[in-house]
Design a protein that fits this description.
It is built from 17 helices and two strands. By secondary structure, the chain is mainly α. A hairpin with a 4-residue loop joins β1 and β2. The protein starts with a helix and ends in a 5-residue tail after the last helix.
Length: about 375
Amino acid sequence: MILWLIKRFQGISDSVTATTTGDSVVYLTARIAAASLLAFLAAVVLGPFVIRWLKKRFRERIASASETLNRLHADKQDTPTMGGVFIMSAVLISTLLFADLTSPRVLIAMGVIISFTLLGAWDDWVKQRTDRNGITARQKMLVQCLLASTAGVLLYFLEPDPEVSQVLFWPVGGGTLTLGWLVIPLAVVVIVATCNSVNLTDGLDGLAAGCTVSCGAAFVALCYLSGHRVLADYLSIPYLSGSGELAVILGGLVGAMLGFLWFNAHPAQVFMGDAGALPAGALIGLCAVVIRQEILLILIGGVFVTETASVLLQVSWYRWKGTRIFRCSPLHNHFVFRGDPETRIVIRFWIVAALLAIAGLASLKVR
C-alpha cells in the first residue's frame, strides 16, 4: 500500500529514487523497520481482545502421552490457545502496508502464511472440539506437503533468475550445486521440516516465540543482503533482485512474535498453537529456499533442528533398544523432567538461538 502510494505520486517517487542506494528505490530498510514496529503494535493491541475471545472458545487441554508431563504442566490447563491467529494477522497487516504486493515472492509468502495458519487452526479446532489430539499425523503431513509443493512449483516457474534459483548454495566456501527441477522437492522438505520443527519447540512459555525472533531476525538480514547487489557480491552469496521484499515480511514476523511474547511470557496468558507455529516455520523455510540458504538454516535454526532430532533419536532408540536417551522429548521436556525452572530453560534456549543466529551470519565471511 505504501509502495503503491509512493509510485502513484511521481514527485515523491522521483525524490525517493534520487536519495536511495542499493537496488531498492523505496527505502527498504525503513519499510522493514516500519513493518516490524507495526506488527508489534498490532499484536499488542489485538492481543487482549483476541485472548478474551479465545478464552471463551479455545482452551489448552493438557493430555499428552506422558502422565508425568501432564502433572508438571497441570497449571497450563485451560490457558487460551490458537494465539497464532493474531500473530499472523499482525504479519499480514504489516505486509499489506509495507511490502511490494506486485512481487510474486511476496504473494507466495502471503499464501503460505494464510494456508498454514488455516491448517494449524484446523488442527487446534479438532483438539478443542473432540477428544482427539488434533488431526492425524498423516492428514497433517499430506496437507503440509501439498501446500509446500504448491509454493515450490510457483517459485520454480515464477522465479525471474533460474540460474541462481535452481542451485544449492554452500555458505562456507561459497560452493554451489545445480539442482534444476529438484529444487521443488527440496523446497517441500525444507518448508515442511521447518514448520514441524517450530511446532515441536512450542512446548514451554515463550520458547518457540523467542527462538523464532532470533532465527527470523537473522533471515531478515540475509534476505536484505541477498537483494543488494553490492553486498551480495561482497559476501559471495547468491544475488536475487527483489528478495529484500521478503525481509519486510520477516520483519513483520519478528515484530509480531515480540508482541506475542508480551502475553506468552511465563506464566503465559495465551499459547500460539499450531495456528502460529506452523505458518511461522513455513515462512522462514520458504524464505530460506528463495534466497538459497537452506543449509545455513540448519545452523541458524539449530534449536529447532535439535528439538526435532531429539524426538527422532528418542523414538528410534526406544524401538531399537527399548530404553530412552532423554527423560522426555522434545529436548526441552528433558530439562523439565530434570526439575529445572521453566524460565531458566527458556532463557537458555533463547541464548543458544541468538548465538546460532550470530554464528550463521558470521559464517558468510568464512572462506
